[in-house]
Amino acid sequence: MSQAVSRAQEYSADGVAVRTEGAPALINGLKKTHAAALAHRLYLQNEVEPMLERGVLPPIGEGFSRFLGNDEMGKLLDGVVAAELAEGTQDPYDSHPPLRDRIAAAERLTGARRTPDDRPAIELVIEPEQYETELVRTMVDRPLAAVSWRDTARHWEATWRDQHAKARAALVGLTIATLPRGLRELRALARRVHGEAADHVDDDDIRGWAVGAVGAAVALLLGVAGFELVATPGAPHKLVAGDVAIEPFRELSAWWRGETAADALVERFAPLGLADQPLA
Prior knowledge:
Elements: H1 2-21, H2 23-53, E1 56-57, H3 60-69, H4 71-87, H5 99-107, H6 128-139, E2 145-146, H7 153-171, H8 183-194, H9 203-224, E3 228-230, E4 238-241, E5 244-246, H10 248-256, H11 264-269
Parallel strand pairs: 1-2
Antiparallel strand pairs: 3-4, 4-5
Helix pairs in contact: 1-2, 2-3, 2-4, 2-5, 7-8, 7-9, 8-9, 9-10
């Protein structure tokens, strides 16, 4: 009952927005907010939390803007919004109506006709970086050193070394040229590290574990070979040397999902002299 009241209040507030600023402003805002809510969770989990674990704090707002501005992330979020508009349903315990229902309701209302203002709403806040930093520091029980996003590269490398140490038992005897392709073999590798627990997770989780464990090893191998990491929020990690750029985690994921040929990895790394280097 209380959630139904809450949903009714949301429709009422939407009506105020349409009468004041017009339906296009509200509808665009609703779509952006829906996409940004998902993006923010991904951003914190994949970009910010690994840095906090290393005791450093890059600029939160700047990173999120770059995260949202990445082309691949933009396509993902557009797909999320499109799926919600096509398939979104309402649960009795939802505090807000489904996105498509709110948009449909807004389109039925008569409202103001204003020229769209494309400035981000964060511009209404004075010194947002100060509040972002203070908020994060209150949530983490350790000192955090301020760093730029450019400087996060060495902290990612430290994270990969930790991942490599944990997964080393699964990597003994392996090279890029001898990596297993099938899920059964990947699950056997995971069992070397996680024991019987590896038998109780789904195929996507096994692939994800393999991409993380092997990807960290390959990234470190590239670093030893003189490649430098380009770390951009929202983009796959890219290691670059001259005109050669490799995205080990993305390329391994595509290979294990069968999106590239079986010999793609060997062809990629053999010319660099890395296909037969031990991953452990």
